[in-house]
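[audit] Reproducing an earlier prediction to check determinism. Same input, same settings, fresh worker. If the tokens differ from the archived copy the diff job will pick it up downstream; this log only records the rerun itself.
[audit] input (354 residues):
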Amino acid sequence: MPTDSALLPTVVLTAALVDARWLGPDALRTVASAPGFSALARRVRQHDISAAAIGAAPEPGAERWLRAHFGLPQDCPVSACALLADETPARWRIDPVHLHVGRDHLVLTDPSKLALTPEESQALIEAVTGLFLDEGLELSIREGTHWALQETDPLRPLHLHTPSLSGALGRSIEARLPSGEDARRWRRLVNEVQMTWFAHPVNLEREATARPTVNSLWIEGPCPSIDPTSPSRLIAAARLASGGRAQTTLTQPFDLGFITAEGGPLAVDTRLLDAILEGDPHRWMQAWQSLDSELFTPMARGLSPWERGAELVLAGDSGWRSLRIGARAGWRFWSRPDPSSWLQEIHSKPVPSA
């Protein structure tokens, strides 16, 4: 991030970029003309675009931005980088998940909807502990819905390439399963876990009370270990990534609680993403209206904490747009941008030839 804006407050909006065919071109112009956002557009000083390369691993634009902003490891999904902030030697993040059957494929449900209790997590882990020990692996609980996997046998480490959980939410998982040397080994272990949990008392109770069952596992990693003297901004990024989907839903007033050691306040809002996952364009537009009054309008007016300007990151399926907002004193009344073009999904770009 350029030094002249490194200390400005930053807000990342997940799923702010949408396919016009999903929302509708007229609707896209309508939401872009919301009073707060259109006023904000007139104060944009710099407009950066980043699109994922064709063939790159599927990863949401918000996570790509976090990776670039904090310098996180390239070969570890952002949400798994939370393990960097832990004292545990575990290299893998595990999420207990619910898979449901689509038309002809399995679809990943948002794990946050499971709302697992610590008691449920412990019971499910104890039921499969032996399966993992046989593979030189050990499961542990970090939080109710976030677990960790540690390799206990140095002769049998896991060799996997794992996609981002966030990028798989609400989608067919077929093209997003782990790959690599131990992909078959991991699939076999997961199949055994699924059979063990099928009639587990925790799932029977959840099914009886109309709650989603826990019927599979999602793995992310590996994350390299870091020593305590590593830059504190890397630790801050890892802790940010420890939240659900590496993001935190914000409420009014905006809580810019994530402070980087070398930058300004940072917050991530997921309301638009929640609407995308529900497949509900109307809900997306409602969420945008809320953001217009709660975020865009005070940001355009230069109210606290936006007096000196801000950075607004509009993230999409794999890319993002970064809008640098100037201070109110620099408002260009003659500027008439078309902000609707800033809300359209960014498509992948070809990998540059050598």
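[audit] rerun output stored. Observation attached for the diff report: The chain has two domains: 3-73+230-343, 92-220.
[audit] end
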